[in-house]
Amino acid sequence: MPSFRPAGQSQITVRIDLPSSNNLAFNADVIEAAGYEFDPATGAVTGEVQKIIEGDYGLRKIIVWNWQVDPFFRVHYRYR
After folding, report:
1. Which residue from 1, 27, 46, 49 lies 20 to 30 Å from 67 (Cα-Cα)?
2. Bridge-partner residues for 56, per DSSP?
3. Which of 63, 5, 9 is nearest to 35 (CA)?
4. 30-43 as b/e, with b when 16 or more CB fall inside 10 Å?
């Protein structure tokens, strides 16, 4: 995702949809899902973005973050 800064009171919303563990035929394990604040000038991590939603909804696992600055998101998963 390119680097940018939202104007005014805008927010960035990131939503990840993966197969849920409820889906017996095709599912995935989330190994890591994190959002980080960082200083673009130095590249140093300055904090963590809290998840708004993380859970299984039907046959999907959904993870959502909202933030007002340019964050870095890392999601590692493994299909079963």
Report:
1. 27
2. 61
3. 63
4. eeebbbeeeeeeee
* Nearest C-alpha neighbor of 33 from the set 45, 50, 9: 50
> Mind listing the pLDDT tens digit of every residue in the chain (80 residues)?
455 566 667 777 888 899 988 888 888 889 999 988 877 788 788 888 889 999 998 889 999 998 877 677 889 999 88
What count of other Cβ atoms lies within 10 Å of the Cβ of residue 28?
15
Against a cut of 0.85, is the pTM above it?
Answer: no
C-alpha–C-alpha distance, residues 61 and 15, integer Å: 10
Q: Among all chains, which residue has been given the structure tokens 């919303």? A: 13
